[in-house]
UniProtKB/TrEMBL annotation:
Residues 246-281, 373-387 have a biased composition (Basic and acidic residues). Gene3D superfamilies: 3.30.930.30. The lineage of its organism: Bacteria, Pseudomonadati, Pseudomonadota, Gammaproteobacteria, Methylococcales. Residues 19-249 form the MobA/MobL protein domain. Keywords: Conjugation. The gene is mobA_2. This is Mobilization protein A. Residues 243-306, 339-387 are annotated as: Disordered. InterPro entries: MobA_MobL. The keyword tRNA processing does not apply. Belongs to the MobA/MobL family.
Length: 409
């Protein structure tokens, strides 16, 4: 099980990047619009993939603000510098368990509560998943002009909450929190809340937070399986529209490579956890360590004290089994006892090369015999190189956890 696919990102639309507000709006709504300043028509009706289009402006805004084409042409006319920021775009994912109507409700509620009530004009569209991408990836593009509008027209100055270095972070955080809450409410209406014995709504509600924060919150509510997943997962970085487009055309990109590398490391972590759980079962455990802790919390009625201790106990159990695994699969010989291939150990200068080679061969044979016994006893195939990789990965994660605990203190 992977962490929830919460995503909410801000992107400026700027003339310095060769962008047009009219063209951007036409593309996002898969429509046909004319840019009066360029005397050019942008027609993206054949693009498709748009489930719903929503354009909104404050109730007292002039008539031009109520029409998509007229509104964004007004933006082009007003933002007349060669490096003007024309608009801000927010790209956000929906919970995949929702239907078309629920996605529409979320978008309308967000636009009304966060933007039009505060005086801003918005054009938004819900896009369906790309045929060559994840079939669950319904998402929206929300274009916002960062000048407030009233009955007299657009404000003389831009609203700095969108672009100011000190304010835009808080603005984005507030948007993420609202988007997460709206999604969680719809999931609860689908019966995926705690009152129905499910955690999906609360996972989405806190999905905008860091993985470590999500792990702590999941532990507090007794969702220890998800807490463990968050604790050991590395956050991925958004690839971006341009890189995704290039990747789909068969061109590798740096962002795409970084994303794949992160996914590979996460897959390795998942393999590690599965091997740990299998070993725990063979050593007399009753299932996954995190499941044991979750079951115990439920048996005790989910008391706060038991739940609050959950994550610590879970990690302790997993780390304990990891130590056992390390002893099983990576024999803790010293360098002299179990040298690396081709390594010459100068532990005693008086020894001849033949004696040193004989000792190295003996140590290697003993290690193989030990592994053979463990393989026969526990039914687990030993791959020394893989287990050494696992050990190094585990040590790195433990250093990261220790570093995080140090900051928390």
């Amino acid at each position: 099980m992977a962490a929830v696919a919460f995503h909410f990102q801000a992107n400026p639309i700027s003339r310095s990047k060769g962008q047009s507000a009219v063209a951007s709006a036409a593309y996002r709504v898969a429509g046909k619009l004319q840019d009066d300043s360029l005397q050019k028509i942008f027609d993206y009706r054949a693009k498709g993939g748009v489930e719903y289009v929503h354009h909104a402006a404050p109730k007292n805004a002039p008539e031009w603000a109520q029409d998509i084409g007229a509104a964004w042409n007004k933006v082009e006319e007003t933002e007349n510098r060669k490096n003007s920021t024309l608009a801000f775009e927010y790209v956000a994912a929906f919970p995949h368990q929702l239907d078309e109507q629920q996605r529409e409700y979320i978008l309308k509620d967000f636009v009304r509560e966060e933007l039009t009530r505060k005086g801003f004009m918005v054009t938004a569209a819900i896009h369906t998943p790309n045929k060559r991408g994840d079939e669950r990836n319904h998402h929206t593009h929300i274009m916002v002009w960062d000048r407030a509008i009233d009955a007299d027209g657009a404000a003389a100055n831009k609203d700095r909450r969108f672009s100011d270095l000190k304010q835009r972070g808080e603005t984005l955080k507030g948007f993420k929190q609202k988007w997460a809450e709206l999604g969680a409410r719809q999931l609860e209406r689908n019966g995926l809340g705690l009152e129905h014995g499910h955690h999906e709504a609360d996972r989405w509600r806190h999905g905008y937070k860091t993985l470590n924060e999500q792990a702590k919150i999941a532990t507090a509510r007794g969702d220890l399986t998800y807490a463990t997943e968050c604790q050991f997962r590395e956050a991925t970085k958004h690839v971006g529209v341009a890189a995704v487009s290039m990747e789909r055309k068969g061109k590798q990109t740096e962002r795409g490579d970084l994303h794949r590398e992160t996914e590979t490391r996460n897959a390795e972590r998942q393999d590690i956890r599965e091997e740990i759980n299998k070993a725990a079962e063979k050593l007399g455990g009753q299932g996954k360590p995190e499941q044991q802790q979750e079951s115990k919390s439920q048996e005790r009625g989910g008391s706060n004290a038991a739940i609050n201790q959950g994550l610590g106990a879970t990690l302790s159990a997993v780390e304990s089994v990891a130590g056992i695994l390390e002893n099983f699969f990576v024999p803790q010989h010293t360098a002299q006892q179990y040298p690396k291939r081709g390594e010459v150990i100068e532990d005693n200068p008086t020894k001849t090369a033949g004696q040193r080679k004989a000792e190295q061969t003996k140590a290697a044979n003993e290690a193989e015999q030990s592994n053979s016994i463990k393989r026969d006893t526990y039914g687990i195939e030993i791959d020394p190189e893989r287990m050494d990789r696992i050990r190094r990965q585990w040590e790195e994660e433990e250093r990261q956890r220790s570093h995080g605990r140090g900051h928390e203190r």
